[in-house]
Amino acid sequence: MDLKKQFDDWLERKSRDGLNFNETLLSKRDFHNPSLATKLLEYAGLRECSGTHLPSIVYNPSGIPSFDYERIAVIQKKEWEESGKMHSSVNRKHNK
User: Fold this and answer.
1) What is the pLDDT of residue 71?
2) What is the rounded distance in angstroms from the CA atom of residue 43 to the CA atom of residue 48?
3) What is the DSSP letter of 65?
4) Count of structural domains within the chain
5) What are phi and psi of 37, to 5 degrees?
6) pLDDT in tens, 16-75
7) What is the separation of C-alpha 31 from the centre of its chain, rounded to a whole number of angstroms?
């Protein structure tokens, strides 16, 4: 059965019998299978935990370079200390 035929049949049953897609899906035993999400992601060609559902041409989080967080912390600490020294020298000059 092709997809259009399945969709048309579903719409007919929905209008005739009042079927609700979400309720029907949730009532299926397979829906509660923990590996279902993985299978659906593979089938749809999606990456799990990619941080986005946008196409990779729009936003590609794996294209962001990895950072050396320890190096960044050292730089931030140095700038913070220099900023503190600058503020203390300004305060001393201002209070004279």
Assistant:
1) 81
2) 12
3) P
4) 1
5) -60, -45
6) 988 887 888 788 887 788 788 788 778 777 766 656 677 777 777 676 666 777 888 888
7) 22
Q: Is residue 7 part of a domain?
A: no
Six-digit token string for 61: 């989080």
Q: Has residue 96 got a pLDDT over 60?
A: no
In a domain, 73, yes or no: yes
Rounded to whole angstroms, the Cα distance separating 35 from 24 reads 19
Structure tokens at 71: 């190096």
Whole-number pLDDT of residue 33: 82
- Listed residue (52, 77, 79, 71) closest to 63, CA to CA: 52
- Residue ranges making up the domain that contains 80: 65-96
What CA–CA distance (Å, rounded) separates 86 from 50?
Answer: 42
**Residue 32 domain-assigned (yes or no):** no
Q: In angstroms, rounded to a whole number, what is the distance separating the alpha carbons of residues 29 and 10?
A: 19
**Threshold 0.85, pTM exceeds:** no
Would you say residue 13 lies in a domain? no
Instruction: Quote the pLDDT of residue 83.
Output: 84
